[in-house]
Fold this protein.
Amino acid sequence: MDNKKRYYVIKFLVMTILLLAIFVLSIGMGSAEIGVSQIIKSLFNSGDDYLAKIIISIRLPRILAAVILGGALSISGFLLQVFFGNPIAGPYVLGISSGAKLVVALAMVYLLGQGMVISSFGMVLCAFVGSLLSMAFVMLLAGKVRNMSLLVVCGVMIGYICSAITEFIIAFADDTNIVNLHNWSLGSFSGISWEHVGISTIIIVIAIFFSFFMSKPIGAYQLGENYARNMGVNIKALRIVLIMLSSILSATVTAFAGPISFVGIAVPHIMRSIMRTSKPIVMIPACFLGGAVITLVCDGIARTAFAPTELSISAVTAILLAPVVIYLLVKRKEAGHGTN
Amino acid sequence: MEQIKASSLTVGYGNPIISDATFQLDAGEIIALIGPNGAGKSTILKTITRQLKKISGNVAIAGKDANGISENELAKKLSMVMTERVHPELMTCFEVVATGRYPYTGRLGLLTAEDRKKVSDAISLVGAEDVSGKDFMKISDGQRQRVMLARAIAQEPDIMILDEPTSFLDIQYKIDILSVIRKLAKEQNIAVLMSIHELEFVPAIADKVIGICDGRIFKIGTPTEIFTGENLESMYRMNPGTGENLVQGLLAYSKSLPL
């Protein structure tokens, strides 16, 4: 048992070091190549002004956002998987991210029409409302469709519908600001400000803190609703908390970076394989670290692969992570869980 | 001491399946719930474990109205093994059994040395030491049932509710599981309410039998009182005259069991 704990600690350490290394590398990579010594100088405010400006006001917030939002998205996926008792669940494939995107786009365009700009908190709030609306719809379907794979297909359809309506809204609202809106609606970390980073950090730290302290009932819930109830878990309250936490986490991500595909579904799976456990007390921090690493790498690819042209982050995450999801679907079928 | 007292209990999914059931389960007593498929055995058990809301009547646990007992308090008094399959991912059998400690652990659910000892003891009691470190999803059905029973034991209950604990197991596993249940009742004074389809085991294991059919309790009594040709014929709708032979066979088989 102590051996197991030691392995957890080693794996966490390796992931943390990996994250730090990629973090530093990411600051250097980009259309302006910056060396490590320059990075350190800039951070302590004694370097080249132009490069320091790139680092402080463009790259650093973007990289921090990828770390925080990527981690949040993975935890959101993990909580949804607990909720549905199935690893084939995530905010993107169930259409929850797209619902959030739609409401944010509606609010933005409406307010732009009134000559106003939506505040950061307003965006999170809209995304949260959109997430809950999609979630409510998914749960309504879940009552009728017992098969998880089918539910995912329905979720993908909801996602398409929401994205299509968002496209309509963006196409019909003519404004120069809309160009940004278009990038955002495909998923992108470009243009994230320090304000966005600050607000998402506050919300996400609180939500993760709560999730972590819900580890015990979440762990019980993994044995099924009835056994969890018999262990003394208040099932109704737990289900509400799971939905609220996963929605607020994915909503914050969508509000600032748009819908990011497959991170929420694939990262928890990868982390389960690495940590060899599904215990929430291990999985919640592991998902944060794993989600941060993977999202940071994907964003690095998105902004450097065809620089100065940027790819949308979802294009990169889809190529890297959708195969993981396909693997999951096939494996579940083989293991005879096809109907769950 | 009475552990469960059901009075005029009506249960069902919206419509009543069993009406007006009155029975009592004492400490250290094993009651077998028998009756044809779909008679409502599981429905009664699910109502007592609060998976299902009762339609009317009363259930008292250790002399206290079940509605007035908090989830955590109930968890310390009553544990269960149900027929539904669980699919815990990447959990060892030890970890599955350890979930039984839930009502006793702290905020983060970390196990103390004492908790670990109780989990190990429960695993030894059901004879599952050899699978303790294995993945729960990678062991046989019979072993899983043992592990689930150990989980229920680790919860240190006064009452155990078991829904068909022996179904789908081979004969040796059935005998093993039933002897553990008997040991728990007689040595630790745990009250056991279990549904069971294998009538041939009932006389050997149960102190009392509740026979249900046609939406109500048909009869309550000792195995000898319930196991008559006439009773079985009417409960299971058997052809008249066929029950007596069956009862003789069942009782003879039951006597031969090493329980």
Remarks:
- Chain A has one domain: 67-334.
- Chain A has a mean pLDDT of 87.
- Chain A touches chain B at residues 1, 85, 87, 213, 215-216, 219-220, 222-224, 226-227, 229-234, 272, 276-279, 281, 337, 340 (CB under 8 Å).
